[in-house]
């Protein structure tokens, strides 16, 4: 498989070190508008062809697939260009800035028949895959309650560099630069971690989020620091369970930690994932009488990178797909509206259009949860009315 790398920033180094280890993968070109970065990166990994724009790479065309590791704001235009050129696309998360863009990418990819996957990295955690298998096998009984968190501390620590001076952190703090804050950045990971691990979907959401004061007048250079850096979310799942999901860049003492607890009628599971280790513990069977927790050993799993290569090679679409990421993007869009309007929303039909940012109207499914009973899923329709108007 001839693969090109689009965007050669810090995540590209991580991705390419994984892709290079997979048999049959040849990294044939790199693309980045920053010539210094492009050269450094291509030299580091011995990549022969270098392009300053994706258009040039597409005109050259001698590749099967692309990994899109551009900043969030670029995913939409760059992925659509690759799809139009008939190339398979592995796109970084979040798929897009909003659900409408994510759906446009999903529909274009599906119509073109190309392999489309999104790098929800924590699918690579074997403990998550094993926990999901246990839930699906009924080992926990009915799941009643879920707790999930994604904790980072890069706003208070310099362990990953200084966000005050580095553009790779500053764009993540600014909505004008295409960021939906911690919600769009790692929120998508923890939404996937929680719902995939508990083997259920999110149907209801109520969110609070906050961008704390961090710089004089809330700005550094061109970057207005208005994107949320903490969120808390109360959710209802399709299986009837309730859950709390939260994330913060202010979690002092936690560089990068994901935690998931799934409580069922017959047993519970806890996953803690940190860069240096992951652990799955369970309290099951007779142990629920004494609240005794035991470590559960798990076998290794295929990574997203391996699954993408296998999908391109076999022609069979694999998870997590663009469609799945678009569904999660809907939860993110609704969370932003929930914060603004301070009310709960459901992802069940009907579909309406709601302005997420003042300037734009974003297509999404939305109905006020209010006192209404949940409706049965039915054929989805599109309307152009903003809720509340
Ligand atoms: N899956 C994960 O766990 C994970 C972790 C970190 C980052 N990410 C995602 O990866 C993406 C990149 O993040 P990063 O930390 O590497 O950012 P970064 O700012 O370090 O790198 C982005 C690179 O893309 C280049 N670029 C910008 N526009 C481009 C274009 N049109 N064509 C080609 N290149 C372009 C920039 O010059 C830069 O070199 C983001 O979407 C981010 O959310 C995912």
Automatic annotation (TrEMBL):
Instruction: Mention one GO molecular function.
Output: nucleotide binding
Alphabetized UniProt keyword annotations: Oxidoreductase
**Ranges for the GFO/IDH/MocA-like oxidoreductase domain?**
129-270
**Keyword presence, Kinase:** no
Q: Which domain of life is it from?
A: Bacteria
- Give start and end of each Gfo/Idh/MocA-like oxidoreductase N-terminal domain: 2-119
Q: Which Gene3D superfamilies match?
A: Dihydrodipicolinate Reductase, domain 2, NAD(P)-binding Rossmann-like Domain
Instruction: Indicate whether Oxidoreductase appears among the record's keywords.
Output: yes
* Pfam families found in the cross-reference section: GFO_IDH_MocA, GFO_IDH_MocA_C3
> What protein name does the entry list?
Putative dehydrogenase
**From what organism does this protein derive?**
Phyllobacterium leguminum
